[in-house]
Amino acid sequence: MGSKLSDRQADLMGTYFDRVILMLDADEAGKAATSVAATALSSILAVEIVELASGTQPDQLASEEINQLLAGFAHDVPTPDR
């Protein structure tokens, strides 16, 4: 997605999802992008934000760290029927 959310991306998210969890970089640019994206998306779906330690980048986190950060959000995720 990068740090800018396009109108098309927002529309697609609203079409296919009821909820989004944002986890962007915890630098000033990432915080600003998170705020803009959350504002844009909140009118069409539920938005939750993962708060990272200052300066942290999600792509530099280990899978275990990401899983721990997302664990609190998982309780509402439906399990697909297979």
Describe the structure.
The protein is built from 3 helices and 2 strands; from the N terminus they run H-E-H-E-H. It is mostly helical and 82 residues long. The longest helix is centred in the middle third of the chain and has 14 residues. It is globular. The N and C termini lie far apart (29 Å).
Summarize the structure.
By secondary structure, the protein is mostly helical.
Keywords:
single chain; 82 residues; mainly alpha; Dna Topoisomerase Vi A Subunit, Chain: A, domain 2; 40% helix; 10% strand
The low-confidence parts are none
Estimate what percentage of residues fall within beta strands.
Answer: 5-15%
CATH fold-level name = Dna Topoisomerase Vi A Subunit, Chain: A, domain 2
Q: What is the CATH class name?
A: Alpha Beta
Structural class: mainly alpha
CA(first)-CA(last) distance: 29 Å
Q: List how many beta strands DSSP finds.
A: 2
The spatial strand order of the largest sheet comes to 1-2
CATH arch. level architecture: 3-Layer(aba) Sandwich
Q: Biggest β-sheet, characterized?
A: 2 strands, parallel
- The helix/strand order is HEHEH
What's the rounded overall pLDDT mean? 87
Number of helical stretches of at least 4 residues? 3
Please tell me the total number of domains.
1
Give the helix level as a range of percent.
Answer: 40-55%
Q: Rough shape?
A: globular
